[in-house]
Recover the amino acids of this structure.
């Protein structure tokens, strides 16, 4: 269960890389590069370029997301930036501004 | 997701490079490089590596830390902990087995003693005094001073609590007396080489 959690009062300015799931409840600015899933929870704020396998956004993301598998924008999220992934899900109620590239 | 919202974990395969700040506990199982400032406790687990200038309230080091730590309350290096850098904190605990190289500054010792009770930590404190002959002899300048290599004696002399009378005041004399001449390292190297030469088949 040694999941990585960036708690709600944490601010990271820089780069995060890793091979495991990352849960963001706080703020991350810079760059995120993961081989697994990124979860931006409703309190989470990410201003970063994101490269992951899966990304699930319930909070705020500003930046481009590139996923090898899936990007999911949940209903309460706010996302500004481009998304590139083979599967992209945008739920009813999600706010999103940017380009979508599913590589069709 | 019940109560763990107030704690941050950096998992074993994660590398964070940059500034990290926050108002909650942080447990590092992976790597953090850059600067780190918290108003609560930093916990560097055995697998954790932190190369950063750190400013926290408490730090508990069971992994590896390279960099200076400024703590408003305490810094503890556990028996698995390794640290290179300077520590500036009113309470510094270095337990038997911990490895540390750097300077320790506990601030104004008299003031600290007067302001807060130091609960039953006399054993640890006596062992700490031994590790800081440099700090005792001259005031530590601000942190931008180049980290001058402390006497190797600091690393070599492993704390041996049984040999230290707990009640006796830790005399600087005992710290200043070099326990052994430091030949063994060179001697060991030679022995190793010989072993290598011997191996033939």
């Amino acid at each position: 269960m040694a999941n990585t959690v960036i708690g709600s009062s944490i601010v990271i300015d820089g780069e995060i890389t890793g091979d495991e799931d990352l849960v963001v409840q706080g703020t991350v600015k810079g760059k995120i590069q993961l081989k697994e899933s990124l979860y931006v929870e409703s309190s989470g704020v990410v201003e970063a370029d994101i490269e992951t396998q899966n990304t699930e956004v319930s909070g705020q993301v500003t930046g481009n997301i590139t996923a090898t598998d899936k990007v999911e924008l949940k209903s309460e999220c706010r996302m500004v930036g481009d998304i590139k992934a083979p599967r992209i899900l945008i739920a009813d109620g999600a706010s999103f501004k940017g380009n979508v590239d599913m590589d069709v | 997701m019940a109560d763990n919202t107030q704690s941050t974990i950096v998992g074993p395969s994660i590398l964070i490079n940059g500034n990290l700040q926050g108002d909650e506990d942080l447990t590092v199982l992976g790597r953090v490089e850059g600067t780190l400032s918290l108003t609560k406790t930093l916990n560097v687990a055995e697998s954790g590596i932190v190369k950063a200038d750190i400013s926290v309230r408490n730090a508990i080091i069971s992994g590896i830390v390279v960099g200076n730590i400024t703590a408003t309350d305490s810094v503890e290096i556990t028996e698995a902990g390794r640290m290179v850098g300077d520590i500036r904190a009113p309470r510094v605990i270095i337990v038997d087995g911990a490895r540390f190289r750097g300077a320790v500054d506990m601030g104004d010792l008299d003031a600290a003693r007067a302001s807060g009770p130091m609960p039953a930590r006399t054993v640890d404190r006596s062992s700490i005094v031994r590790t800081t002959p440099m700090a005792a002899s001259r005031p530590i300048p601000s942190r931008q001073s180049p980290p001058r290599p402390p006497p190797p004696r600091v690393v070599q002399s492993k704390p041996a609590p049984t040999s230290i009378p707990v009640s006796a005041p830790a005399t600087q004399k005992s710290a200043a007396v070099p326990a052994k001449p430091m030949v063994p390292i060179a001697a060991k190297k030679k022995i190793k080489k010989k072993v290598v030469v011997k191996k033939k088949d």
Chain B touches chain A through 25 residues (CB under 8 Å). The radius of gyration of chain B is 19 Å. The helical segments of chain B are 109-115, 122-131, 133-137, 153-156, 172-176, 184-198. The first helix of chain B runs from residue 109 to 115.
